[in-house]
Each structure stands twice: as structure tokens, then as C-alpha cells.
Amino acid sequence: MTDARRTDVVLLLVALVWGSSYLSAQTAVGALPVLLVLFARYALAALPCLGLVAAQGGLRGWTRDEVRAGLPLGVTQAAVLVVETYGVAHTTAANAGLIISLTIVLTPLLDRTGRRGGPPPAFFAAAGVCVLAVALLMSGNGFHAPRLGDLLMLAAACVRAVHVALVGRLTAGRAIRPLHLTTLQTLVGTALFLAPAARDLPVLARADAATWTQLVYLALFCSVFAFLAQTWAVQRTSASRASLLLGTEPVWAAAVGIALGGEHLTPLTALGAALMVSGTYWGQAVERAHRTAAATQATEATEATESAISSRTTDTARAFAPAMSPERTGEDAPCPTPTPTSI
Question: Nearest to residue 92, comparing CAs of 275, 268, 256?
């Protein structure tokens, strides 16, 4: 297997793991309270993260930039998981994975890092397709009042978009180690959910092996492994290819929900799933092209400005050079410094 193919496989595996997390979370909250599941997921993820940081000799401390970014991002990430986990408890895993992918088209509306102006009209057309897809996914067997779980997943997509935009804003141009940032976020989440889950800790101790398997899977595979694998793979391929492969997450969520969760798609929800995947891919492609074009224009503008300044400096030097020459001023030309010879 070539290096490129190996990288693609790793990225697809990350998308598969993330897609399967909705069914795992749904199974876990069927046996334990939501806040207890979140505490266990964060705590079980924090332990290996701390071990990896210690192995790299990084327990001596986090930098000021890492703390300034990690604390608020830990809070927003916890907010995402609260809404998302409550949502998946009241809807299907397939719907949860598909609706949460709306984040892809919501984030560029909030994130202005690296580009000026709003998205192009085509992006809003793609967002419209996604909105229609959400309506179809919520319809189930026919149009009716939206289910609580679907509305919560829609809210989770909005909160996640805020979180992603905040990640870009707080980490741009700063020397932040990704592993240290993730570890700090897991510690913040553990601290936030400890008090609400404290009274249910005896329930966690009595949980059966199947429930613990889901918790360990969510913590170690869907959090720690997925993060490390994604970081490794993204460094070995283009951003476009990585986003394309990671964007298959909602497809895997639907496939896992149907194959392992016994769920099924009605004609309306199947159409909604197809529109959601198409709309998010379209919106992602439009936004990426817009960002690239904006970056190119900014680079060209900078180069033109530097060229103009250089040209003006040269012209100014030429204009003053004759006035300062020995012939114009009557001053003697400086004597050349003699080159030392051997003694």
C-alpha cells in the first residue's frame, strides 16, 4: 500500500469512527444518565491524553496561549457535546449524524479568518439545499411537528459552528501544540461534568460490560484515536482531500445506524440524506475555492504594494544621487581604503 493510499484509509477510518459515535452515544445514554456519560467520556479521554503529554515531557506546563485558548474552547466543546448527546437520545443515529453535518455550511458564515467579505451566492444556494435536507430528515414518514431530538441536533450544529469558528480565532498565529490543547479541553470537560454527575457515580460503577465498552469506545476511539489519526493524516495530504474524506462522516453515521442500529430510511428521509450530503459537499467546495481566491488576491496585493514601495525608494535614491555626488558639491571624493599587504 502506498503512503497516499494509507493516508486515505486512515482519514476514512476517522470518518467511520466519528460516524459510529452517534450510535454508541445513543446506546450509552440508554443505560446511563446523559451527564454521567459525558463525565465518563471526558475522564476516560483525559487519562491517555495526560499520558501522551507526559511521554513528550510536556507536564512541566502549558503555555499562556494554550491556556487562553484551551479554557474557553473546553467550555464550548462541552456545550456541543451536551446538546448533541441529549439530541441523539431522542432521534435516530442516522438523523443525528446527517443533521450535525450542517456545521460545514454554518461555520463559514461565522468564521472570517483568512478572508474578507461574505461567502459567494453559490454558497447560500448550497446552504439552502442543506436546510431543505434538514426539513426532509425531520419529516420521517410525513411532514409533522419536528421531533425534539432533531431540533436538539440542529442546535448542536449551530453550537459546533460557533466552537469551530472560535478555534480558528483563538489559535490563528499562535504557537499552540494540538495535543496539549486537546488535553486541556478534556480536563475542562471532566471538571465541568464532575459535579452534575457525582450523585450518579455509583450507577456508573454498576454499569455492565456492554455499557463500559461503549464509553471506552467513545473516549479512546472517537476522541483520542480520532484526533491523533486525523493530525497524522492531515500532515501527509492536501487540505482539500482531507476535508473530502472526513466529510463522509454523515454517510457512515447513516450506514452504521441502519446496519447495526436497526434503523431505516423512509423515502423522504433518504432524499433528505442525499440532499444533505450533496449540499454540504457543494458548500464546502464553494467556500474552499472562495478562501483560496481571497488568499491569492491578498498575496498579489501585498506583492504589488511591496513592488511599488521598492520602485519609489529606487526612484528617490536616483533623484538625490546626482545632488550628493562630489562633482555637484565640490567636495573631494573619499580616498579608497588601502588593502593591507603582507608584512
Answer: 256
